[in-house]
Every structure is written in C-alpha cells, then in structure tokens.
TrEMBL record:
It comes from Prunus dulcis (Almond). Residues 122-191 form the Cation-transporting P-type ATPase N-terminal domain. Keywords: Magnesium, Membrane, Transmembrane, Transmembrane helix. InterPro entries: ATPase_P-typ_cation-transptr_N (IPR004014), ATPase_P-typ_TM_dom_sf (IPR023298), Ca_ATPase_N_dom (IPR024750). The keyword Magnesium applies. The chain crosses the membrane at residues 174-193. It comes from the Eukaryota. This is Cation-transporting P-type ATPase N-terminal domain-containing protein. Coiled coil: none annotated. SUPFAM superfamilies: Calcium ATPase, transmembrane domain M.
Length: 219
C-alpha cells in the first residue's frame, strides 16, 4: 500500500526542475542577499548629491535656534535686572514703614515673577515689606496709610455703554459701511430712473432683498 502511494505521488505531483542558468541563479542569490541583509544591501546605494547640503542647512538652523535662545535668555535677564534697579523706594513709602513699591507688587502679579518674589525673601519677606503678619493679618490702625500707598483692594466697574456708543461702534464695521453706501446708491439710482416715490421703494426693496437669492430664499 505504501509503495503504491509513493508511486502515485511521484507520478502526479513530482515537478521536474527547470534547470536555470548560472546567470539567473547569481541574480537570484544577489536579490535574496540584499533582502536578508538590508543594512549591508542599502549601504551600497549611492548617496544623493543634495544630502550634504541638507545636512549643512539643518546644522545652520540648529545653530541659529541656539543663538536665538541665548539672546532671549540674556534679554530676559537684562529686563529683570533693569526692573529690579528701577523700583527705588520713595520717601513716602519709606516714611510709612513699607519696604516695597506698589508698582513692583503689581509687576509680580502681572508677570508671575517668581524670581522677583524670591529676591524679597519669598512670601514671608514680602509680608514683612508690606507690614503684614502672616498670623494676625493687617493692623487696623495702619489701614488708612496702607490705602494711601497701595490703593483700595476694589474692582472699579467700567461705565456701561449707551445706545449711541454701540451705534457708533457698529458704524466702524467695513461691511456695514459698504452696505450703507450701496443702499444710498441704489436709492439714488431708483429715484433718478423711476422718480419719487416709486424709485425709492424699488431701491429699498433691492437692499432689503440683497441678502437673499433671486428666488427669495436665504443664500
């Protein structure tokens, strides 16, 4: 039984080799070697002529970015040093018993200047400069003097705008100005061609219908 099965397989499924040439075998082996060993295979590929130029451009760009960062850092340090030297205690602040100018406190809050805050000794040092106890708070007898130096801790509401103010701001819109000019021209042309008052009605009708399409639906 086994011999019959082997004979059947040999007769129906055995494929004779095609006997390729030596040149074809060499091409096949070269292709397989490139696929199996990609780093070595692609190492022999020619380098693009623009590769060195691209590398130089990238290096120059990195150098420019590095220089820009150094310049920005130096500028910020220069500004901080200038600001620290600018806030000199006035006689009024010194006589009131305080150690920091109102504008300097405002700059801390506005720019989140942690370095400036550390320069005054942190929270505890700043509390000492404005004569505030972190435990007991503000002495009530010094409130008028404090308000005179540092102002009131109060939000000043802006005055409400009236109708004519909103009307004037709306007139600054370029689109609205163009529409008003086109409306005036349309009414003038309508009156000149159709007479009064039919021409005015036609001009007003064209302007009120202009946001819509010709069939009356919104465009």
């Amino acid at each position: 039984m086994r011999e019959k099965m082997e004979e059947y397989l040999r007769k129906n499924f055995d494929v004779e080799p095609k006997r390729p040439s030596d040149e074809a075998l060499m091409r096949w082996r070269s292709a397989v070697a490139v696929v199996k060993n990609q780093p070595e295979g692609f190492a022999w590929s020619p380098i693009s002529p623009s590769a060195p130029r691209t590398k130089r451009k990238r290096k120059n760009l990195q150098e420019k970015i590095r220089v820009a960062m150094y310049v920005q850092k130096a500028a910020l340090q220069f500004i901080d040093a200038g600001n620290r030297g600018r806030y000199n205690l006035s006689k009024e602040v010194r006589d009131a018993g305080f150690g920091i100018e109102p504008d300097e406190i405002a700059s801390f809050a506005r720019s989140h200047d942690n370095k400036g805050l550390e320069g005054h000794g942190g929270i505890a040092g700043l509390a000492g400069d404005i004569s505030v106890s972190l435990k007991d708070g503000v002495v009530s007898s010094k409130i008028p003097v404090r308000q005179n130096i540092y102002g009131l801790n109060r939000y000043v509401e802006k005055p409400s705008k009236g109708f004519w103010m909103f009307f004037w701001e709306a007139l600054q819109d370029l689109t609205l100005i163009i529409l008003m000019i086109s409306a005036a021209v349309s009414i003038g042309v309508g009156i000149a061609t159709e007479g009064w008052p039919k021409g005015m009605y036609d001009g007003l009708g064209n302007n009120t219908q202009h946001p819509f399409s010709s069939d009356g639906h919104c465009s």
